[in-house]
Each structure stands twice: as structure tokens, then as C-alpha cells.
Amino acid sequence: MNATQANAIPSFSFHTTPRIVFCEGAAAELAYHLGTTAQDRLMIVTDPGIVALGLAEPAIASLKNAGADVRVFGEVEADPSLATLERAIAMALDFRATGVIGFGGGSSLDVAKLTALFAGSGQAIDTAWGVNNARGPRLPLALIPTTAGTGSEVTPVAIITVGEDEKRGVSSPLNLPDVAILDPLLTTGLPPHITAATGIDAMVHAIEAYASRNANNNPISRNLAVEALRLLGRNIEEAVFNGGNRAARSAMLIGSMLAGQAFANSPVAAVHALAYPIGSRFHVPHGLSNALVLPHVLRFNAADAANGSFALYAALGPHVFPGLRAEGGAQAICARFIDRLADLSARLGLKSRLRDVGITEADLPAMAADAMKQTRLLVNNPRDVGEADAYAIYKAAW
Ligand SMILES: [Zn+2]
């Protein structure tokens, strides 16, 4: 084999949402994009903030103008509970919904996925947790994100909080909607701190997907991750500080979706695993939890040269930060990239230390033990993470 021959590509599979519509103002013309008729009985799943703002009103008016019957479930909370999901399913059955439309952030989209699934199939929820345990059929499903971060409109996972703080997920290709509608005008009113945290979350999805040790890491995901980071890195500051800039908002929404497609097929790793206890124990929003540990996990991974992640991070650096100095070899470029990511979070106004979100040093050992339960994510990390490692990472982030 000579040097110009490529390495063999390991086998992989790739799933994504079959139809994606990107259009400024798409929500206000929703009936057109969905082909809505007077026979349709459509249930919209959203949250109380969106109801109060009236953000979904133009979409609802469009559906009603087409003759559809519309019912709104507007009760989705952050980290949605099983009780919320059960109420949504009951409404869908009572309404005899012919389709479900998720409209909102990741929580609303997750509840919409599972409402369409369980109202369509009648399967008992308890038999569907985990990977590929869901049976169809589900109701027709459209997802309309109003934040640029989770990428939930193109991921097969939906997460529900069971009991106090146990997170359970249903992962199934059935959770990919029939159509994702991306309308950047829905995101122009997002406040800066939400734009910043959700935007960093999307960047973490791309970085972790690109460097994932998962056997299904694949060239499609890596290309999507690079393009996602190019869009997110060059537009996040403008989107945060000049939220009305539609070009920046469009780039963030597309970047978030591309990152979602990447990690849906090349899953995330230790940043998300270590963010998990911060969210569940201290109710810190998902994006901020990730931002708090991001530079420290990447430094931990890069410090062990044998796993090669430093070279992958160095390759990503110039896509995120076009001016990143390229001299000094991959280790030096990687170190500058990680420093720049930490600076970026601070410049965006995000809290940068665990102590800033009410975590004490005495909390760290239990968090490290908790993080070890995220084996589903940790196995994808470029470097093995033990409990002592997790503690050291938290200590550095504290
Ligand atoms: Zn995330």
C-alpha cells in the first residue's frame, strides 16, 4: 500500500430526518409546508413561555386557515416529567390527533416525539425505554425548533425525567420526525444567555461527535461536524450580541442541526457525561453545564497523546476560530484551541466556574461518582475516564 491510498473505512450506518425545510417565515406558512388539509387534527406540543409570547400563533393561524382542527398542549417544562408526557398522550388520544407538531426547545420536541410515538402505537411507556425498544406505528410528526442547540429535530432520542431526577430515554429511528421545519425568525427574540448556552452546546455536539471513539463514528458525521463548527464558531458572538441579525441566526440554526445529525450517528462523550450531574443535581441548564466542563475535559483528553484526540482538536481549531495561530505543531494548536473555547464562553457572558453555579468543593466527589453512571456516553470518549479522573476534571473546573 503506498502513501496515497486511503485507509479502509469501517462500516457504519447513518440515519437522519428525511425532509428538512429551511425558510425564513416558514412557521407562518406552516400549512403550506406540511400540506395541511381540512381533514387534519393537529396537536401542537410546546411550553408555557412560547404560549405567553404568542410565538406559535402565526403557525396555528396558518393551520386553521387551511381548515385543520388544532389543539395546543402548552405545558412542557424544562426536563419534562413522565406526568407531563402522560398528559400530552392523553390529550392526543382524546383529540384523536392525526398528527403531532413539536414547537419549541429540546424539551418540547422530546415530548412531541414520544406523544406521536405512544399515541400512535398504544405501546406501554415502560416497555419502550432504551435503544430500539419502541414499536410503531407513530403518528405523523413535524418538529420546529425555536432554539439553536439541541438538534433534537434530527436526533432519535427523547429524554424524560422519571421520579425526582432519574433521566430515561427512548432511542429509536421512529423518533426522527417526518419533517423538520427550520425558521430562523423564531430564534431572533431569544435572550443572549440562552443563545450563548445553547450555541455552546451545539459546538460541544460537533466536537464530541468528531472525536468520538464510538464504532459508528463515520465520515458523514465528521464532515457535518466541521461545517457545523464553521457556522457556529463564526456566528455565535453576533447571534448573542446582535440577536436580530437574521444571517447569524440562520447560521446558528443550520449549524445546530448539522451538529445534531453528526452526533445522532457518532455519539457524544465525556463532556456530556460530566455535565449530567451538574444539570440533575443543581438544575443548571444543559448548555451551561456543558460549557462549564468543556475546556477541562478536552485538556484531559489531549494530555494523553496516545489517544490522538489532540490532533483531532487541532484539526477542528481553525474551523471554529479562523485566526487561530497554526505554528508549533498539533499539541500547541490544540492547546490554543481549548484556551480560545474557554475565552469564548467567558466573552459570551457565561459563568465559567462550577463555584459560580452554587456548587461547593464538598459536592465534587459525589458528582464524580454520579458521572461514572453515564457509561453510555463515557465509552465514546477518546480517553478512558475513571472516577478519580472525573474528580480531577471537576476540581479543575471548580
Ligand atoms: Zn448537548
From TrEMBL:
Which key words tag this protein in UniProt? Answer: NAD, Oxidoreductase
Q: Fe-containing alcohol dehydrogenase-like C-terminal domain: from which residue to which, for each copy? A: 195-398
| The Alcohol dehydrogenase iron-type/glycerol dehydrogenase GldA domain, residue ranges | 18-184
On the tree of life, the source organism's domain of life is Bacteria
Q: Which Gene3D superfamilies does this one have?
A: 3.40.50.1970, Dehydroquinate synthase-like - alpha domain
Task: Name its co-factor(s).
Answer: Fe cation
Report whether Signal shows up as a keyword of the record: no
The family line of this record is: Belongs to the iron-containing alcohol dehydrogenase family.
Q: What is this protein called?
A: Iron-containing alcohol dehydrogenase
